[in-house]
Amino acid sequence: MTPSPDRRRFGDSKKDRIDALAQTAGSTAGGAQGGTVMTVADAGRVSGGEGQSLIASAWKRLRRNPVFLTGAAITFVFIVLAIIGPWIAPYDPVAQPLLSQVRRQTNPVPGPQPGFPLGGDDVGRDLLSRLLVGGRQTLIVGVLATLGGLFGGLTLGTLAGAIGGWVDSLVMRIVDVMLSIPGLILAVSIAAIAASPSQTTVIIAIAVVQIPIFARLLRGSMLAQRASDHVLAARALGVKPHAIVFRHMLPNSLGPVIVQATLVLATAIIEAAGLSFLGLGNPDDRQPEWGQMLGQAQNYVSDYPHLAIYPALCIIVVALGFTLMGESLREALDPKSRR
C-alpha cells in the first residue's frame, strides 16, 4: 500500500525537524567544547566539573569552618608549646627559686612578682615553668593512651567485623560488658590494681577504657563494607578473604575511627587528669603534669585558688580544641550531616 502524498509530506517534515534539532545540538556541543564535535568519550563529562575526592571535598569545607579553625589553632599551639616548653620555660621545673619566700604560717604560696608572672607553688617552684613543662607530659599521656585504645579497638573490631559468627558475638559481649561500666570507674579500678601508681599505669588504664569505643565503631563500619559492591565483586573474582579484609574493607572503614580518635584524645586528657588528681598518676612531681598539679593544689585551693585554676584552664582549653576539631571532622566526612 502506497502512502498518501499528505502522509509522506508530514513524515518528511517531521524528519526534517528532527535533523534540524540534531544539527542544533551538535553545534551547541561543539561550541561548548571549543568548536570541536562532541565525541563518545566526552559525552559523560561535565565541563568544569571535575570530581573531587572525599578528603579534598572535606578540606574545602573545613578551611571555611570557623569552629574547625578555632580547634585546630588551639591544638597547634598546644602541640608546639608541649614540644618546646622545656626550652622556653624561664626556670627548671624542679628548681626552687622562691623557696626563701615560703612561710608556712604567713605566706605558704608566693604570689606573682617580677620574673614570676604566675608566682610559685607551696615549695617555691615557678608555676609558669611547671605549666609549660607539664604540657608535654599531658600530651604524651593523651596520645599514648589514645593509640593504645585505637590499636586494641582495631584488633577487636576487625575480628568481629571480618569473621562474624560466634567470634562477633563473643567480642561484642565483651565490649558490652566494658561499656556498661563508667569509664572513669573502670580506669580507677585498673590503675588501682597496679602495685604502685605511675604514668604507665595511667596510660594503660585509659587505653583499656577506650578500646570498646573503637571496637564497636570499627565493627559497624566493616559490617557496612561487607555488603558493598566492591567487596562483593572482589569475592566474585575469587580474591582471598584476608586480602578483601585488609585491602578493601579495613581501609574504607578507618575514616570514622580516625575522627573518633580526635574526640577520644580530649577525653583521654581529662581522664588522665582525673586519675592524677585522685593520686593514681605519677607520684614523682619532678615531672609535672597538669592533672598532678591540680591534685597537689587541693590543699590550698580555698586560699590560693590560682594553683588549681591555671592547670584546670589548660586542661579545659586543650580538651575543647580537640573536641571542636573532631566534631568538625565528623561533620565534614559524614554525608548525612554535611551543610
UniProtKB/TrEMBL annotation:
Its main location: membrane. The keyword Zinc does not apply. The chain crosses the membrane at residues 67-89, 139-167, 174-195, 201-218, 257-280, 308-329. Pfam families: BPD_transp_1, OppC_N. CDD domains: TM_PBP2. Residues 135-326 form the ABC transmembrane type-1 domain. The keyword Lipoprotein does not apply. Keywords: Cell membrane, Membrane, Transmembrane, Transmembrane helix, Transport. It is found in: Cell membrane. It is a multi-pass membrane protein. SUPFAM superfamilies: MetI-like. Belongs to the binding-protein-dependent transport system permease family. This is ABC transporter permease. It comes from Intrasporangium calvum.
